[in-house]
Design a protein that fits this description.
The complex is a heterodimer of chains A (529) and B (254). By secondary structure, chain A is of the alpha+beta class. Chain A contains 21 helices and 13 strands. Chain A folds into three domains: 2-47 and 376-527, no CATH class; 54-162 and 243-372, no CATH class; 165-228. Chain A has helices at 2-13, 16-52, 69-80, 117-122, 129-132, 164-191, 201-207, 211-218, 222-228, 250-253, 305-308, 316-322, 348-358, 369-372, 374-412, 414-422, 427-458, 460-471, 478-481, 492-519, 522-527; strands at residues 56-60, 84-101, 104-115, 140-142, 145-148, 244-249, 254-259, 264-269, 276-281, 291-300, 311-315, 337-342, 364-368. In chain A, the strands form three sheets. Chain A has a six-stranded mixed barrel with strand order 2-3-11-6-10-9. A two-stranded antiparallel ribbon of chain A has the order 4-5. In chain A, strands 7-8 form a two-stranded antiparallel sheet. Chain B is globular, with a radius of gyration of 18 Å. The chains are: A alpha+beta (529), B alpha/beta (254).
Amino acid sequence: MYKLLLSVRYLRTRFIALASIISVMLGVATMIVVNSVMSGFGTEMRNRIHAILSDVVVETNSLDGVHDPERWMQIIREVGGDDIDAMAAMVEIYGMMTYDYRGQSVMKTVQLVGIDPLTRAKVSPDAGVFQKSLDSYQEIKEDKIVVREPLRLSDEPPSWNLTAEAMEYRRHHIKLQQEYIEKRKWEERRSQPEAGASDDDAPAAIVNPFAEPVARAASKDDAPDFTAGHHPAVEVDPAAPQPAQLFVGAGLIEFIYFDEETKKSKVMRIVRPGDDVMISTISSGRPEPVRFHATVVDVFKSGMSEYDSNLVFCNLEELQRVRGMIDPDNKDGAITSIQIKLKNYDRATEVVKRLQAALPPGLFSIRTWEQKQGPLLAAVEIEKAILNVLLFLIITVAGFGILAIFYMIVVEKTRDIGILKALGASSRGVMTIFLSYGLALGVVGSGVGVAIGLLFVNYIDNIEKGLSKLTGRKIFDETIYYFPNIPTDVSPTMVVWVALAAVTIAVMASVLPARRAARLHPVEALRYE
Amino acid sequence: MPDLLALEPTRRLMQPAPIAPAHLSTVALEKFYRKGDHKIPVLRGVEISIRRGEFLSIVGQSGSGKSTLLHVMGLLDSPSVGEVLLDGDRIDDLPQTTRDELRNRVFGFVFQFYHLLPELSVLENVLTPLMIRHSMLGYWKRRREFKAQAEEILEKVGLTHRLKHKPNELSGGEMQRAAIARSLVAKPEILLADEPTGNLDAGTGQEILGLLRNLNEQEGLTIVMVTHDENLARSAHRLVRLTEGRLEVLSDAA
């Protein structure tokens, strides 16, 4: 009883003990906040990667792909059996995308992915994930105010159709282009009546590359080109989308700039849905590289910059056609990858093993999405582990603080220890006083720390806002991270472990002083001044 | 012939063993401290025997070893050579836990500097020996009984109005009375007082001494008091002097 009474009394009367409580508290709170935010980011990142890569990815090693996807998918279905939920065949090749910005042509290397949006949406981990990454399904917010409602309803299946808004923009844009071209031609013809008509295309094309396909669609010849503006071909709608249609990664066509007026980061979008861009495939040898025009149907934003500044989705059949992947005899298109969604992801590695055994080796590489993104995921895990070690060292430092303070208190209380022993207290009893004192410090410190940490995580957005206001600089920029809020993920196991570890360290730090107290000789302790 | 028991140690060996064992006695007690290679003797063969219900004073100059004798007898310290006997049984070689328990149950200590725990109130200080004796649960169950017991003893020493005060709010005499109350709450058989009046003015010292004598007379408590003040020591039944670790009898029954 005296042990409890004394350790509680020491806790209440020694203000220096507050210092150790605060250090334990801060360590625990920091660990909880950092872990929650990191695993929040980690989970968010995994979700974003998983939205692009379905559970299992079967890829051909050659960019030329394999023919007869139906046959391969049949094999996979037979091998995978009930585990397989959905499959999507795709073509993944490398290419370049060119568009015009302020009179300069901008060129980006891209990964072209030929998909059928419907089947692609089906292999996403959750229904609607693929749609959610498309611009037209999203509302656009500026400073938390909705500036544009979603253009499509969330239950509308993804397709290559332009939205009404994009179509109207396209019509208007192309009309302006044509008028501009006509005006230029007319002016040039008037100033240089003798000039060759063949030169006329060139300057217009440089001014606006979108003009070229329109002009080409109208006519192949130079002379009719002159009359094309006056008598447009009735059958061809100049505003009809190109046969190749794209979902373009947001990072390819946007850039972030700092607005000096509002002191905020803003996003500038150069290409909008309805615009045309130029795509060229690259390859050495066969099939030959090709160039073609494609209409941007939608902008795609997964939140992973690796994908958003690389991926361009294209309609599968058109990509196969232009690239010569279609067998001329039986109209069968080659594919380079099959994405598989499983009914239960826990069985993924097992399914992968079965597929590896069943499919011809060397032709395919078969991996789960985690294996495919292994290095990145591993890097995040290692980062978290290292951070945990460092933060744990902070708590250990707090532990040494407790050790020093306890030593001091033991020295200060030497006489009291002698008194207790004279009154019949055992060495074990005296040791228990200081151990329970350490336990009390640890429990109070980590209890308050857990409370503060959880509160911090809960109100992290408000805190971020407050800090941003204080420093005058946006700490967590939505435009960079694509998060409206800071993602957090509090794991109860983690909280329990952190609290337990802190308490253990506090108790362990008090062992040494407690032993010293227990070993004090009663007479010497009583004489101590 | 109890008086014989307090004679010179050399002669004590010649005596036949007393029929009724003394309450507390020592046999050829030696105590020395080591300082490097040197042995510094403090007690050199002390033989002392205290009857049940006796009030014994030990006088001596500072450094004569009287406090050490008290500590060895009260099991706070262990003798280098010799034995300590309680009711004829050797107690100095008992295991540590048993000695702890004996300190708690048999001996009551009163110190010159009161040695109250500064964090606890007077009442809590007085309750400490009982807290030490009983397990947490056992104490909790009987806490009302113990509290009444402590209050009764505090009333006896005249501190009823100071129950909730902290030691630093009390005067020296009050602190010593609280310390005496603490030493009595565990109902000891022997009270060991180490200069109980050494830090008090003459009047208060007399007051405390009166309290001790009353305890001795009314409750039959065996009291061993160490002091350097021979006037105070004379109020005891018997007075012995300790000089350079050796005992000499000064006076018998007052």
